[in-house]
Amino acid sequence: MSETGTRPHRPLFLHSLSFKLLLLTVFFVMLAEFLIWTPSVARYRKVYCE
Predict the structure, then answer these.
(1) Residue 30: inside a domain, yes or no?
(2) For labelling, which of 1, 7, 20, 49 has a CA lying 20 to 30 Å from the CA of 31?
């Protein structure tokens, strides 16, 4: 360590490429699930009301 007491700069996990890819993957999986789930619930409600 140097005499100034500073540590070498390391990138934070939140700014890393792997975190961004993980975030994008989770976002698109949730979006796909929502787009599949919504019509299914609407069809169930329509059948239930008839």
Answers:
(1) yes
(2) 49
